[in-house]
Amino acid sequence: MKRRKSRKPNYLIHEKSPYLLQHAYNPVDWHPWGDEAFTKARNESKPIFLSIGYSTCHWCHVMEKESFEDTEVAKLLNDTFVCIKVDREERPDIDNLYMSVCQLMTGSGGWPLTIVMTPDKKPFYAATYIPKETRFDRAGLIDLIPQIKTLWEQKQDRILHTVNQVAIAIEHISHVSGSGFLDKTIFKTTYEDLARNFDEDYGGFGNAPKFPTPHNLMFLLRYWKQSGEKRAREMVEKTLVAMRSGGVFDHVGFGFHRYSTDRQWLLPHFEKMLYDQALLAYVYTETYQATRKKTYENIAREIFDYVSRDMTSPQGAFYSAEDADSEGEEGKFYVWSYNEIKKLLGRDAIFIFKAFGIQKGGNFVEEASGRETGRNILHLRKSPASIAQDLGIPEQSFLKRLKRVRRKLLSIREERIHPHKDDKILTDWNGLMIAALAKGAQAFDDYLLADVAKKATCFILDTMQKDGRLVHRFRDGEAALSANIDDYAFLIWGLIELYEATFESQYLQTALDLNNDMLNLFWDHKNGGFYFTPEDGEHLMVRQKQFSDSALPSGNSVAMWNLMRLGHITADSDFAQMSSEMVKLIAHRVKQFPLSHTHLMVALDLLIGRHYEVVVVGDLNKRDTRRMIKAIRNRFFPNIVVLFRPYGEEKPEVARLAPYTLHHKAFNNKATAYICIDTHCKPPTTDIQKMLRMLTGEEGIS
What we know:
It is a single chain. By secondary structure, the protein is α+β, with helices and mostly antiparallel strands. It folds into 4 domains: 11-174, Glutaredoxin (3-Layer(aba) Sandwich), CATH 3.40.30.10; 185-329 and 422-608, Alpha/alpha barrel (Glycosyltransferase); 334-415, no CATH class; 612-695, Glutaredoxin. Helices cover 49% and strands 12% of the residues. A hairpin with a 2-residue loop joins strand 21 (672-677) and strand 22 (680-681). Helix 18 (447-463) packs antiparallel against helix 19 and helix 21 (555-570) packs parallel to helix 23. The radius of gyration is 26 Å and the shape is globular. The protein starts with 17 loop residues before the first helix and ends in a 7-residue tail after the last helix.
């Protein structure tokens, strides 16, 4: 194999994306996405070879080392194509479109994503990872490229037919229109589908590979709350406990890996993504509220500890991801050999062997090669109580010793060569982390978490806006790239949570301002729903709307949830009307594929289920006010909005945003709760227990 790093950089050398810079010295003559590359392709009558990936993608690294660093492959690519590299995290609009193409043409998708298309951006070939040499039924680049070249030069009519068929199909898929309705029966249907897919032995849904999918768990918690179906909550708890016990959780440094390659949550794909940390921390926090079990608070705090230590910039914003690979090997940073543990920990080694299931032969088998490595992925083989019983010590003594030895292992591991960190800052993913921290601040009564969220918010609002518009990415001093619907929707989510954590009206005002911008830039005034790109964004083959959830909840479902929450906060019925339009638009698809829309169910529950508005009037410096607010926050009331009106202020800022709060008063100078349930308002009360009885329905609706 002829492999080398080119001494001469290609056109990616001036980019900011860590992923693009990883490829800047490939012998492939890579271009960034832009007019220059497409003009070159038209002038030279060449097709485009588009490769989309991200910096922490394991198989992207494999394809680079195998092919893009290989001079033989590079020559074929350079002679046949104009080659373009795209970071999917920088340009999710491009990635979403061409991933839809790949799924349409091949029936599957993933990264690296490979697209061959005409100079006017119309695709006629799609694949994911492509090896250098042909293997079994998978064509290799060495054989594939000459075939595409012949097709391009001699059979343009076939290409034209393919691109036209693909364009028609993508237009059809992307066009969302309809006039249906959804009622509460869709919740039961979705629950039953999840229950059928539930893994009774190990938690989670389906078979390997297993993904966390926190929005499924958020839906199940709400279904349990509205229906009383205990099994819904049991599925959440079993999944969350199993994930925390398995190798998919980093037991030394904390945080969750991307997914598990097996049923048991043992063997992870080792990359760590910011959005997984945020969404999982959020659902662990909600599960704490639902169960009042300290375990779930502890796990959420572990995630926050990891993000604070390893994923936070000096300015307080959050980095995007950490790689699965280090020193060219997947998982090397995270795994341990039996002899290594024995040598490093001495008397503590036996304890660690029993706690974490360390085997002499190892339990880590490489996903790519199937090769046994002799190394171990740390995991709790049993519950802490069971392990403590096996060791003959009290559970608290076990946990205390485990904490001490874990810190020792972390100190040792810090000396290893760390995986690559993708240090770009993305508005949407930061919005999710802000939401999780603010939610934790509320549930755990911890204003330090709110301060962390406030610092990140300050950075986003101060640095990642240009000409009054959000931008998507910041790195190396540059804030750039048009924001998409996820940027707006996820940041608004974070701001709503941050308002409820701090009751600082500036965050609510900013959420409303951004929501207004989002409606102006993304709303489809003809059919309803939000486009992924703004009205003045780059013209691609189609302007897509996304309602289906993936690893992330869809921007439309989060935007709808925001609309409902802001509508209840401000008493603006227009927001509920927009949400209803979205439901009509997507109802048919939701009925067909309910499991692809579980976060939309979260929003729908707020639209058609029971909802609560609470205004607390009081003084945050007084104990009775803090106790009243805390009583609401540390319980699971998913469809609640909470506002705070300072006692004694004639015209508080919150009354400008929510005018109905202007005349709310404190009775007898005590903290007073005003509660409305659906369209019925209760008499105000200063009694915390009476307030809770109202919220739990024990007093009924009057």
